C-alpha cells in the first residue's frame, strides 16, 4: 500500500512538473465583432477612384463617433490606421481573407500610420507605397489601449472601395531601352548581312 501511494505521488509530481514546462496555450485574439465602432473614418479617395502606387496620395481622417457616449474613449491611447483588401480583392485569395479574430485577419495587412489618440481627432496624408499590390481597398482605424490591444475601430465602407494600380516591376524607361536595343540588333544584323552578301558577289 505504501509503495502504491509513493508511486502515485511520484506520478503526480511528474505530471505537475511536465505541465509547468509546457508552453501556455495561445490566447485568442480580439474579435472585431466585439469592438465598438467608435471611430468615424473618412478617406479622400472616392469609390472606384484609381490611385497609382508610388505616385498618388491618400488623406485619412478619424474622430470619435458623435453617437458614442461620453467617456467611451477613456482607455484610448493610440490610433493605428491600416489599408485593407476589399471583398472583391479577397475572392479566391486565402492569403487576403478577413477574419473576425484579428490575430488571424489577413485583409488589413498594410499599416499606414500609428499616432497618439486625440479627442479632437486626427489625420494623415499617405503616399501609396510602391509595394502595394493592384487591388481594391478600404481603410480601417483601430483605437488601441495602453497595452496596444484593439478596443474600438472605425472604417470607410468596404462596399465603396477605391482601387490601387500597383507597379508591375517593368518601368517605362526599361521598356524604351529594350525597344532601342532590339531595333539596334535588327539594324546590325541587316548591316552584316549586306556586307557578307557583297563579299560573296565579289
Helix and strand topology:
Layout: H1 2-21, E1 39-43, E2 50-52, E3 57-64, E4 78-85, H2 87-90, E5 110-116, E6 122-127, E7 135-144, E8 150-155, E9 162-165, H3 172-201
Parallel strand pairs: 2-9
Antiparallel strand pairs: 1-3, 3-6, 4-5, 4-7, 7-8, 7-9
Function: Involved in nitrate transport.
Protein name: High-affinity nitrate transporter
Signal peptide: 1-28
Walk me through what this model shows:
GO terms for molecular function: nitrate transmembrane transporter activity. This is High-affinity nitrate transporter. Pfam families: NAR2. It is a single chain. This protein has 202 residues and is an alpha+beta fold. It has a domain at 32-165: Immunoglobulin-like (Sandwich), CATH 2.60.40. Helices cover 27% and strands 28% of the residues. It contains 3 helices and 9 strands, in the order H-E-E-E-E-H-E-E-E-E-E-H. Strands 2, 4, 5, 7, 8 and 9 form a 6-stranded mixed beta sheet that branches. It has a 3-stranded antiparallel beta sheet with strand order 1-3-6, with no helix packed on it. It is elongated. Mean pLDDT is 82; it is low at 12-27 and 174-178.
Amino acid at each position: 500500500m505504501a509503495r502504491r501511494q509513493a508511486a502515485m505521488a511520484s506520478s503526480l509530481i511528474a505530471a505537475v512538473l511536465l505541465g509547468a514546462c509546457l508552453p501556455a496555450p495561445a490566447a485568442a485574439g480580439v474579435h472585431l465583432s466585439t469592438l465598438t465602432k467608435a471611430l468615424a473614418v473618412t478617406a479622400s479617395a472616392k469609390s472606384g477612384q484609381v490611385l497609382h502606387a508610388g505616385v498618388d496620395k491618400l488623406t485619412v481622417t478619424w474622430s470619435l463617433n458623435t453617437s458614442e457616449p461620453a467617456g467611451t474613449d477613456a482607455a484610448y491611447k493610440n490610433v493605428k490606421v491600416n489599408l485593407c483588401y476589399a471583398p472583391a480583392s479577397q475572392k479566391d485569395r486565402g492569403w487576403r481573407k478577413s477574419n473576425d479574430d484579428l490575430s488571424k485577419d489577413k485583409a488589413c495587412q498594410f499599416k499606414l500610420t500609428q499616432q497618439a489618440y486625440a479627442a479632437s481627432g486626427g489625420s494623415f496624408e499617405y503616399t501609396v507605397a510602391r509595394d502595394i499590390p493592384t487591388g481594391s481597398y478600404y481603410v480601417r482605424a483601430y483605437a488601441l489601449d495602453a497595452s496596444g490591444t484593439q478596443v474600438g475601430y472605425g472604417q470607410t465602407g468596404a462596399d465603396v472601395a477605391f482601387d490601387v494600380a500597383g507597379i508591375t516591376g517593368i518601368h517605362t524607361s526599361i521598356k524604351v531601352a529594350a525597344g532601342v536595343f532590339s531595333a539596334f540588333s535588327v539594324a546590325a544584323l541587316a548591316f552584316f548581312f549586306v556586307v557578307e552578301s557583297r563579299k560573296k558577289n565579289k
